Structure formats: C-alpha cells, structure tokens
Known about the structure:
mainly alpha
Amino acid sequence: MKRLIDLFRNKYFLATAAFAVWMLFFDKNDMMSQYEYRSQANKLQEEKEYFEKETAQVKKDLNELNTNLNTAEKFAREKYFMKKDNEDVFVIIHEAKKD
C-alpha cells in the first residue's frame, strides 16, 4: 500500500499520467476523433474503389461504342429504347409480387 501511495506522490508519474489522460480524452486528436477519422478514411477508400471500377467500365463501353457500329446500335436500343422507323418497341417491366 505504501508503494502505491509513493507512486501517486511521484511528480514524474503524475505528469505522465496527466499527459496520457489529456492525450487520450481531451486533445483535439483524441481516441474518438482518431476512430472517426479512420472510419471516414475507410469509407472514402471504398468509394474510390467503386468509382475506379465504374470509370473502367465506362471507358470500356466508350471504346466499344467508338469502334463497333453494331455495339452502338445495341446500346441505343437497350439504354435509350431507340428504334427504327418500321419497328415497335415493347418495354417489359418485371414487378416484384406483393404479399
């Protein structure tokens, strides 16, 4: 018990403990802030990966559209429901069954 009391009376221990408490809980870069920053960084990294994949897909589609006329016609028909003058277009929408 005397060792514990002596430890709490030691000015170096008190200074170190006060510094640790200050850095862990009261500083602007405390533990909660660091956790939030890390979570935000992970979220942004996932978004970056998603957009890189989307950009690669769009570049691939653009290359196909620029090089192949049949692909351009297929793209126009599927995405924008374009048709030739003598054709009819029927759009079928599948709805989920409601219980």
